[in-house]
Amino acid sequence: MIPADHPRYASLLAREKMADAVRSGMVVIEGASAHGRGEAFDCLLGERTTPGAARAGKTAAAFLIRAARPVISVNGNTAALAAGEIGALARASGALVEVNLFHRTDERLEKITRHLEEHGVSVLQGTAERLLPLSHDRALCLRGGIYAADVVLVPLEDGDRCAALVAMGKTVITIDLNPLSRTARTATVTIVDELTRALPVITRSCGELSAQEADELIRDHDNTRLLREAMATMKETLTHAVD
Fold first, then answer.
1. Could you give the angle at which helices 29-45 and 223-239 cross, rounded to 10 degrees?
2. pLDDT value at 172 more than 80
3. How large is the average pLDDT for residues 214-219?
4. Is the predicted pLDDT of residue 156 greater than 70, yes or no?
5. In which band, very low, low, confident or very high, does the pLDDT at 17 lie, cut at 50, 70 and 90?
6. How far apart are the first and last CA of the chain?
7. Distances from the Cα of 53 to the Cαs of 24, 105, 116, 207, in angstroms?
8. According to the model, what pLDDT value does residue 193 have?
9. Quick one: how far is CA 233 from the chain centroid?
10. Structural domain contains residue 156
């Protein structure tokens, strides 16, 4: 039992969700390791949504609502931590939801899909094909989903698939607590924030932005600036940690 007044309640609750998902087979142990790495970077952000991350979330919403075929790509960690938030964003943005995994088995696909559906997410179904220029199983995707998308939201992403999607001409939005990662530096829009804080910002912005406001955000977007702001915040945290 985690008391709701615990100062790190949200973080501890996320750990419990990840542990449960590992025990159920929905998340692989490597995914739990990746989650822990992200927590370290979140501490450097002060476990909060920075102004830069909020702006990135609004920009992500702008790309999604102005897209012709937006898709949200979901892996095990994303499903375990934020199934309900993914469903809310899909409804707000009109995006399709496709499950895509590095450690891919039919059993994991079924468990993740069932978990998402239990949280009100409509998951795209079909036969995956090796359509992305990658040597591992994240190359497998649906022809009418990720392959056909013009904008793809890929939370907690592998850097090589992010690069492949960008090389295919797609707009790639990622949520990544590590501003130095290959994914963060490759994506079109990088939201340096924790997943369950970032998703509601995007969802809310999808309902608030006008077409004109969305177009202005897209036109003024500078991902390098966002990454530099995130790193500056982390540097400031480290500099004043013992003050």
1. 70
2. yes
3. 98
4. yes
5. confident
6. 34
7. 32, 34, 26, 18
8. 96
9. 21
10. yes
Q: pTM score, two decimals? A: 0.90
Domain count, the chain: 1
3-class state of residue 218 by DSSP: helix
- Residue 237: what pLDDT? 92
Helix (H, G, I), strand (E, B) or coil at 141: strand
Query: Could you tell me if residue 41 is inside a domain?
Result: no
Please give the share of the chain, as a percent, with pLDDT higher than 70: 92
Phi, psi dihedrals of residue 28, rounded to the nearest 5° = -85, 160
- Classify residue 34 by burial, with Cβ atoms within 10 Å: 0-12, 13-18, 19+: middle
- What pLDDT does residue 242 have? 64
Residue 212 lies in a domain: yes
Residue 36 placed within a domain: no
Range of the domain at 77: 51-236
Can you give the length of the chain in residues? 243
> Domain of 71: which CATH number?
3.40.50.12640
Cα 122 to Cα 215: distance, rounded to the nearest angstrom = 28
As given in the structure block, the two tokens for residue 233 are: 């915040």
